[in-house]
Amino acid sequence: MGTWFGARSDYPFELFSISHLIVLAIALTGFLCLILFRDSLAAKDALFQQLRWLLFLVLFISEVSYQYWAVSHGFWSFNRYMPLHLCGIASFTAIIGLLTLHPFWVRVSFFIGIVPAALALVTPDMPYDYQHYRFWKFFVHHTAIAWACLFLALAMPGALTWRSVFSVYGLLLVYAAFIGFWINPQTGSNYLYLSQRPSTVSPLDFFGDGIWYYVNLCLAALALFAVQYGIFRGVVKKAGKEES
């Protein structure tokens, strides 16, 4: 039996097992708490500062420890362990956003981080259960990504506009083209799942094959951005009415 930080574990992960449901419940509870205390976040009081640096540390330690784990066991390779999936990029944009509180990083993090991280939590590509480091890294990291991206948006709601929906979407298309036409072919990787769908069950299974897979990806991303912004703006607007 391998150790907690070992190369492997004898305890495989099972989708929607008790351990999986518990971490999903924790993630959902955190989302609700952030929305509940959104006024304190927008006021940037003591709670804001505490959560800001806690999320920063969790994101930073999660990524560094994962890279160390892969290197120490001889698993590391560019085509598997570079943080080039949306969640990996969102982790870094959120770290920069937490450090700088710049509206650009708030916008990018909000649109590319929340939904991908939430979907990853529900349908994780995860080999091991809670007895292994990989389980904790995955769920802690992805939960922190989703929380941090929502945290930044609630703290700085003015950074998000309808224009930002299309500006971030344009950046995403440029990034996807870079990954799909250069990085993936050159390295044999599958970042952004542009080479093929993930091996685990996911919503991408319904996106079709060939050119329609990419068309549906583009349309779904734009629709998600618009819906996500609409829901967020509704929450902020409702909060404003309650205050008045």
Give a summary of the structure in a few sentences.
It is built from 9 helices and no strands. The protein is mainly α and 244 residues long.
Number of strands: 0
| Total number of helices | 9
Terminal residue distance: 60 Å
Cα gyration radius (Å)? 18 Å
The portion of residues forming beta strands comes to under 5%
Low-confidence stretches: none
Shape: globular
Structural class: mainly alpha
What integer is the average pLDDT?
93
Helix/strand order: HHHHHHHHH
Question: Percent helix among the residues?
Answer: over 70%
The major pleated sheet works out as: none
Name the features.
244 residues; mainly alpha; globular
Could you explain how this protein is built, in words?
This protein is mainly alpha-helical and about 240 residues long. Helices cover about 70% and strands about 0% of the residues. It has nine helices and no strands. It has helices at about 20-35, 40-45, 45-70, 80, 85-100, 105-120, 135-155, 160-185, 210-244. α3 (about 45-70) packs antiparallel against α7 (about 135-155), α5 (about 85-100) runs antiparallel to α6 and α8 packs antiparallel against α9 (about 210-244). The mean pLDDT is about 95.
Task: Describe how the helices and strands are arranged.
Elements: H1 18-36, H2 38-43, H3 46-72, H4 78-81, H5 86-100, H6 103-122, H7 133-155, H8 162-187, H9 211-243
Helix pairs in contact: 1-7, 3-5, 3-7, 5-6, 5-7, 6-7, 6-8, 8-9
